[in-house]
Amino acid sequence: MNKPEANRLDARQEKLSAEMSNETSRILNQYVPGDETSFTIIAFPVPEIGEDFEKIFEETIAINTLDYEKYKAIQQAVIDVLDEADYVEVTGKGNNRTHLKVALHPLADKNKETKFENCVADVNIPLGEVFTSPRLMGTEGTLAVSTVYITDFQFKDLVMTFENRMIKDYSCSNFENPEEGKALVKQVILKNHDTLPMGEFAIGTNTTAYAMARKFEILDKLPILIVEKMGPHFAVGDTCYSWAEESPVYNPNGKEIIARDNEVSVLRKEDVSKAYFSCHTDITIPYAELDKIEAVTALGERVLIIDDGRFVLKGTEELNVPLSGL
């Protein structure tokens, strides 16, 4: 409910807020350079999560300690197909009207280069995703999700459309007045920017985490660190490698991940103020709302990775085991 006494910014203050955020990021990077800094993040539940705390804690331990080598091989099977693709097509099912085309960067040398990072718990825990910074030209369509929690807000029927590299329109059904919903999306997700690019596309593989969330009905209580691994997710804002695009990154197989820039972030070479938005917000489509994820080659050949919310690509079948009881 939008209370009249709630604090809110006018248009001038929103602009100042966005400018301050950008300048703060620039100063922070000056003294804590992104290309010289690494991190590992891990999340655990606290007793306030409810009477099932002990069981949830035990299952969170299991999620956080999944077999590195097993997932490395499974996710590499997905990456091998994506490296052959020109773009990925993602579609929702039922009432979810997601229909997105995500353009991928070309590879100059397939023996030495790759488009996706094989995320196996060496940067953030738990493991369970392959991700890339998409090519903006050619990335277009509709992203929708029935409910998603971002910071302290639950967004209902969140819809975003992408066109000409950027977010063209957005909405949610949190309020009777659609303009109030639009204002909430702009404030919380767009961080008061008029538009943002798609900075990341990822396919989450941690079906064990998804099964736990459904079992204990705690999706609204899980941090994005876990939720982002529970289906395909799309981040709006900066790329996955912001402020560190010049630093080479390699997968466990030794291939360099070349998709570290996009058409916006590369503007840092001309004017750094045009390259970054100081935000990176993940939006995950749960498997239950997902129809297909297909890799499409330049010749139009299609390879299914997920069909009807289940992994069908050869070498990924084991990911469906935790989903079998849902």
Number of helices: 6
Distance from first to last alpha carbon: 33 Å
Query: Stretches where pLDDT falls below 50 for ≥5 residues?
Result: none
Return the string of H and E elements. HHHEEEEEEEEHEHHEEEEEE
Radius of gyration: 19 Å
* Quantity of strands, as a count: 15
Tell me the strand percentage band.
25-35%
Apparent shape = globular
Mean pLDDT: 94
Kindly name the structural category: alpha+beta
Order the strands across the largest sheet as they lie in space. 8-7-6-2-1-13-14-15
Question: How is this structure best described in words?
Answer:
The chain has 326 residues and is an alpha+beta fold. The protein contains six helices and 15 strands. The protein has helices at residues 11-31, 53-64, 68-82, 178-188, 207-216, 224-227; strands spanning 87-92, 99-103, 113-114, 117-119, 129-132, 135-150, 153-163, 166-171, 198-204, 232-237, 256-257, 280-284, 290-296, 302-307, 310-311. The strands form three sheets. The protein has an eight-stranded antiparallel sheet with strand order 8-7-6-2-1-13-14-15, covered by helices on one side. Strands 4-5-9-10-12 form a five-stranded antiparallel sheet, covered by helices on one side. Strand 14 and strand 15 form a beta hairpin. Helix 2 runs antiparallel to helix 5 (207-216). The longest helix is centred in the first third of the chain and has 21 residues, at 11-31. It is globular. The model has no long low-confidence stretch (mean pLDDT 94).
